[in-house]
Amino acid sequence: MVVLAKGELEQIALPAAQPPLAHVREVDLSAAPGPGRAAAARALVSACEEQGFFKVTGHGVPPELVRAAEAAAAEFFALPQAEKEAAAGRPLGYDSKRIGVSGDLGWIEYLMLGVTPAGALPAASFASWTLPCAGAAVADLLEEYAAAVRRMACGVLELMAEGLGIAPADALSRLVADAESDSMLRVNHYPPRPELQGRLLTGFGEHTDPQVISVLRSNGTSGLEICARDGSWAAVPPDPDSFFVNVADALQVLTNGRFRSVRHRVVVSSERPRVSMIFFGGPPFGQRLAPLRQLLGDGGRSRYREFTWKEYKSSTHKGRLATDRLCSFEN
């Protein structure tokens, strides 16, 4: 349950103006194994250059697994508050309204879980929790879900590499597939909005994701918005069958700014609850990040200095959600 004091509610209240609908590029991954692979790779690159955001169909994640994972998550969030708080923890575990450590608030409660290369949720994520009886089922389903989405994310990254003309084929995907990769699964629940005289609420404030790639799906409820290059916002039409993919900060660095991480937010405007599950594909903590030489060209200038993922991730905890974190890593 999200409980906000009057002042906190006012802090996250937004005007009721509705932005226009976004045109979101769609890429069919089912064509990738055959003659359509080159076209799919080009489409991915084009979407990453233009918007930093697209959706994929033909992704191969079983729909029955997605439905079961969403149902288990909804069941968890419907538990009494005391039982959910038994799974509390930072940075992994259950929390509500607080987003990060710098004062950002939202009309949200969530589970944050670590993900191993095999897709499993490490035992450490659950070991110290006194979980309700449904917890084991939630863990099992989210483990299977994470494994399937990680495989899909790695396939998308391989197509991106192909479309960019870089080698080897796993130049990008290996960062997420590595045995030491720092990947996360976040399950968000945005309860129905309270009555606020027509105003909307911030569910999750505007931000970019720091990792390499983010793969998101929701239960078909609206709320996700993306920011265009001119600073205007557009609402993403919900799609219960597709996955939405974000370019994240580390991928922007690796491509020397050719791909741009997309700024996005969630606005709570619905009387229906919204449940979303986001896989964040991150590199190992010790991984050094810098623009790939193959994308610099002859005499090309590197826009970013070299740094480790641990260094960059640590920097993300020092500012607010809307902070432009990459600017301090530019050359």
Task: Provide a descriptive summary of the structure in words.
This is Fe2OG dioxygenase domain-containing protein. GO terms for molecular function: metal ion binding; oxidoreductase activity. The protein is an alpha+beta fold and 331 residues long. 29% of the residues lie in helices and 24% in strands. The strands form 3 sheets. Strands 2-3-11-8-13-6-5-4 form an 8-stranded mixed sheet. The chain has a 5-stranded antiparallel sheet with strand order 1-7-12-9-10. Strands 14-15 form a two-stranded antiparallel sheet. A hairpin with a 4-residue loop joins strand 4 and strand 5 (104-115). The chain is globular. The termini are far apart.
What shape does the CA trace take? Answer: globular
Show unreliable segments.
Answer: 124-135
Average of per-residue pLDDT values: 89
- As a whole number of angstroms, the C-alpha radius of gyration is 19 Å
Q: By CATH's scheme, which homologous superfamily applies?
A: B-lactam Antibiotic, Isopenicillin N Synthase, Chain
Tell me the number of strands. Answer: 15
The CATH class assignment is Mainly Beta
Which CATH architecture is right?
A: Sandwich
Strand content: 15-25%
- The CATH topology corresponds to Jelly Rolls
Biggest sheet architecture: 8 strands, mixed
Tell me the structural class.
alpha+beta
- Elements, N to C (H/E): HEEHEHHEEHHHEEEEEEHEEEEH
| Number of self-contained structural domains | 1
Q: Fraction of residues in helices?
A: 25-40%
Q: How far apart lie the N and C ends?
A: 44 Å
**Widest β-sheet, arrangement of strands:** 2-3-11-8-13-6-5-4
Number of helices: 9
Protein name: Fe2OG dioxygenase domain-containing protein
InterPro entries: DIOX_N, IPNS-like_FE2OG_OXY, IPNS-like_sf, Iron_ascorbate_oxido_reductase, Oxoglu/Fe-dep_dioxygenase_dom
Organism: Aegilops tauschii subsp. strangulata
Keywords: Iron, Metal-binding, Oxidoreductase
